[in-house]
Amino acid sequence: NGKLLGTLAIVHSAEEHAEILEAVVAIAQVAVAVLLIALVLVWFAAGRILQPLRQLAITAQSISGTDLTQRIPVRGEGELAKLAAIFNNMMDRLESAFISQRNFVNDAGHELRTPITIIRGYLELMASNPDDSEENLAIVMDELRRMSGFVDDLILLAQADNPNFLQLEIVEAAAITQEIFDRAQALASRNWQIEAAVKGKIVVDRQRIIQALMHLAHNATQHTETTDTIIIGSKICQGNIHFWVQDSGEGIDIDNQQRIFDRFARVPNRLRCSEGAGLGLSIVKAITEAHKGQVNLYSQVGVGSTFAIVLPLETV
């Protein structure tokens, strides 16, 4: 009711005030020091963690069309180490692809240079000696046909990875085997035999498979003599269909059995000088792999060779 009941007095000394102030300053200084130390530790930790990323950036910037040899050191087993390993694997594939492409261009240029030189020489000869023009023209036309075939082979290999490369259809396996046997006999005089012709319908690109098998048959004639035997056959085994060409020729040594499927690869041939560009077996491999199959080679020097195209069986 407005009456004074009592008085509350709060008293503190100046010394207590100074102590509290000193405590607050000390706490603030410790907090700042701890924060600075934490920032330094985080900075060092972040530097170590991000070092592979910086190395990745430096390596990526140093890569050029002429130098694909740069790699990132892989340390530890963490996620960044996995990233570095993936990057290195990618660079290995890119380097291999660039080397393959460069060799392909060099080899293609060499293969084209030879017939061009021959054609130019005979054209100059025709100009200076018209009397032999008919014979020289025949040689020029033969070289042009060889160049055309070579270019067609290059186009086929370039298209092999195209999704529309194959035109699949339902065909009789026995009919393909018989057709190859009939066509192959025109390649060269050999003891041609048909060992087996499996019956059944399969789903393949008929023209491509015949093309691949004809390459194998032609390859067999290049490594056999007139008295040798070449056997053609087909069978179904373990869910796959096998088409094979077997010869009793000179055989292929173990060192060359994998290399011969490379583009422009040639195996030393004691029987004759091959007229091809070394693309035949590459084409066989490309066609077979487009069918998700594989080419198997069984060969022994002095005994002969068997090339088998093995395709996953899709019957209807």
- Count structural domains: 2
Structural class: alpha+beta
Share of helix, binned: 40-55%
Q: Which CATH architecture of the largest domain is right?
A: 2-Layer Sandwich
Radius of gyration: 38 Å
CATH superfamily of the largest domain: Histidine kinase-like ATPase, C-terminal domain
Q: What's the main sheet like?
A: 5 strands, mixed
CATH class of the largest domain: Alpha Beta
β-strand number: 7
Distance between the termini: 110 Å
Give the neighbour order of strands across the main sheet.
2-4-5-7-6
CATH topology-level name of the largest domain: Heat Shock Protein 90
Strand content: 5-15%
What's the mean pLDDT score? 82
**Shape designation:** elongated
- Total DSSP helices: 6
Can you write the helix and strand succession as a string? HHHEHEEHEEHEE
Instruction: Give unreliable regions as ranges.
Output: none
Plain-language structure description:
This protein is of the alpha+beta class. The chain folds into 2 domains: 79-159, Helix Hairpins, CATH 1.10.287.130; 169-312, Histidine kinase-like ATPase, C-terminal domain (Heat Shock Protein 90), CATH 3.30.565. 53% of the residues lie in helices and 15% in strands. The protein has 6 helices and 7 strands, in the order αααβαββαββαββ. The chain has helices at 14-62, 79-128, 133-159, 173-184, 206-222, 280-290; strands at 169-172, 191-196, 201-204, 229-237, 240-247, 294-300, 304-312. It has a 5-stranded mixed sheet. Strands 1-3 form a two-stranded antiparallel ribbon. The mean pLDDT is 82.
